[in-house]
Structures are given as structure tokens and as C-alpha cells.
Specification:
Layout: H1 12-37, H2 49-53, H3 58-105, H4 110-141, H5 148-185
């Protein structure tokens, strides 16, 4: 059975420009999230919002939220809201990157090519996990007393980070070999 791309709805000739646009958006939103996230680094949350994502218990999550104070909680809310745009952009960016690398590999390395299509679909899944994680964190930020929301956030964050990291690694290695091969096969100018 042949795996199809989750981005078949984008014309093949438009996929590279869409990838570049998604990359630019991902980098811009990522930089904004970094700026919004810096006030969230406290002794209780040394890694800021990431510590909140992995709190795992309601008590730990409440301790983190309290350490932020009112202003920090506002920054956390803005961060979580903006993360919805980020998860959309990175899922498209990394997913399309996997598709583009997969296409380059398709004629010579079918298994690696299929892996790229699988990883493209996985990025869609990572985006869905991220959206559920954000919802759980917003519930906590709003003062929920339901103990399962921190667990939901943690168990969404863990596979999300793994999927995203593997997708980035696949794209980076594929790009390295693609551009490295082009440099090696480029004809040397006659002197």
C-alpha cells in the first residue's frame, strides 16, 4: 500500500514556496513565543512554559502558575494562545519538509521515502497533540481543580516533542545529503 502525503491538496509546484512561507512564519512565531516566554522562567519553572507542560500533577502545576504572579499568568495565556498559530505553522513546515525530502529519495530509497511520508502525517498528529495540550494548560491556568489536566498536558507534550524532533532530524539529514550531493556533483569550471 502506497502512503500518500497529507499535503496532496497543495499543488506539487507550490509545495516548496508554501514550505518556505511556513518556515518563515514558524521562525517568526517561535521568536515571539521565546520573547513571551522569558518572564515565565522562575525557580519553580526554570524552563518556563515547558516546565508547565511537563508538571504532571495539579499541585506542581499550581505551584508553577503561582510563581508567575498575575503578570506572568497573562504572558502564559498569550503564549498558549499564540502557540495555536505556531502548531499550525510548524506542522505544515516540518510536514512539508518531510514530503519534499521524501520526494527526492523516492527513486533510490523507497523505505526512507515512505518514512518521510509517515513523518509528514505524524506532524499533523503532533499539531493535534499540541492543541489538546494547550487546552489542558489553559484549563489549569484558569484554575481547574480537575487533577487529570496536568497529566493530559504531559502525555500530549512528550510524544509531540519526540515527533517534532524526529521530523526535524529527517528534514535536516535529507537536506544535508541533498545539498551536499549537489555540491559534489557540480561540474568544476575549466581553468
Amino acid at each position: 500500500m502506497k502512503i500518500t502525503s497529507p499535503f496532496d491538496w497543495i499543488a506539487e509546484q507550490a509545495q516548496k514556496p508554501v514550505f518556505v512561507a511556513a518556515l518563515i512564519l514558524t521562525l517568526a512565531v517561535g521568536a515571539s513565543l521565546q520573547a513571551l516566554g522569558s518572564p515565565l522562567q522562575t525557580a519553580e519553572a526554570p524552563s518556563g512554559i515547558v516546565a508547565f507542560e511537563f508538571a504532571g500533577t495539579l499541585q506542581k502545576a499550581k505551584t508553577i502558575v503561582a510563581s508567575w504572579g498575575q503578570a506572568g499568568q497573562t504572558f502564559a495565556g498569550l503564549n498558549l494562545g499564540l502557540d495555536y498559530l505556531f502548531l499550525f505553522s510548524y506542522a505544515i513546515c516540518i510536514g512539508l519538509g518531510c514530503v519534499l525530502v521524501s520526494r527526492v529519495l523516492s527513486s533510490r530509497f523507497r523505505i526512507l521515502s515512505s518514512l518521510g511520508l509517515f513523518l509528514a502525517w505524524a506532524q499533523v498528529g503532533a499539531g493535534l497533540l499540541d492543541s489538546l495540550e494547550n487546552y489542558a494548560l489553559i484549563r489549569i491556568l484558569l484554575g481547574t481543580e480537575l487533577a487529570y489536566w496536568p497529566e493530559v498536558a504531559r502525555w500530549c507534550a512528550l510524544p509531540k516533542f519526540i515527533i517534532v524532533a524526529v521530523g526535524i532530524l529527517y528534514v535536516a539529514i535529507g537536506a544535508f545529503f541533498y545539498f551536499g550531493r549537489k555540491r559534489l556533483t557540480r561540474p568544476v569550471d575549466a581553468q
